[in-house]
């Protein structure tokens, strides 16, 4: 397949982690839809008004948990894809941890007490920082340019026969 050779071995697992996050996002959206029905918050209302709905805070916490995950999704996806080109194994591990922390962030928030989102969810920042490091490493490797295996001082080259033919 043309173009696939440029990706390192293990990059396919990066795609699987991104798909897992998509499933988590779909599940969160489904939870918001169920809460809309349960707490009588019709579309296109984004957040319930506390003076009009006694369950507004609970619905708003569920909605906000999903909304926050949507806000961070483009950052997460970009860091996973770019960082994964240079460091697929590290990005798979970090992305998996991030996905798990997002689940706990959402379920904690969905209790109606915003503090509960931080029990395990607060650790989601750490894998994002790790993904930033992987992406920075990839950017530096691009700036340094491709290396010649004969003159390389032991540093690894991105894309260089990393598929293990």
From TrEMBL:
SUPFAM superfamilies found in the cross-reference section: MAPEG domain-like
InterPro entries: MAPEG, MAPEG-like_dom_sf, Membr-assoc_MAPEG
One of the record's GO cellular component terms: endoplasmic reticulum
Gene Ontology MF terms: glutathione peroxidase activity; glutathione transferase activity; leukotriene-C4 synthase activity
Catalytic reaction annotation: 15-deoxy-Delta(12,14)-prostaglandin J2 + glutathione = 15-deoxy-Delta(12,14)-prostaglandin J2-S-(R)-glutathione; leukotriene C4 = leukotriene A4 + glutathione
Pfam families: MAPEG
Annotated compartments: Mitochondrion outer membrane
Coiled coil, from the record: none
Catalytic class of the enzyme: lyase
Protein name in UniProt: Glutathione S-transferase 3, mitochondrial
């Amino acid at each position: 397949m043309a173009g696939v050779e440029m990706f390192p071995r293990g990059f396919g697992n990066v795609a699987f982690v991104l798909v897992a996050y998509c499933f988590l996002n779909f599940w969160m959206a489904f939870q918001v839809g169920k809460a809309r029905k349960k707490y009588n918050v019709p579309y296109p209302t984004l957040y319930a008004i506390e003076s009009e709905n006694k369950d507004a805070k609970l619905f708003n916490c569920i909605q906000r948990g999903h909304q926050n995950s949507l806000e961070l999704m483009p950052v997460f996806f970009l860091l996973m894809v770019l960082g994964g080109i240079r460091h697929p194994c590290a990005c798979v591990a970090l992305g998996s941890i991030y996905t798990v922390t997002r689940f706990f962030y959402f379920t904690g928030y969905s209790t109606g007490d915003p503090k509960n989102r931080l029990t395990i969810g607060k650790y989601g920042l750490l894998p994002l920082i790790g993904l930033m490091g992987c992406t920075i490493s990839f950017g530096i490797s691009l700036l340094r340019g491709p290396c010649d295996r004969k003159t390389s001082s032991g540093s690894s080259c991105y894309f260089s026969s990393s598929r293990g033919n």
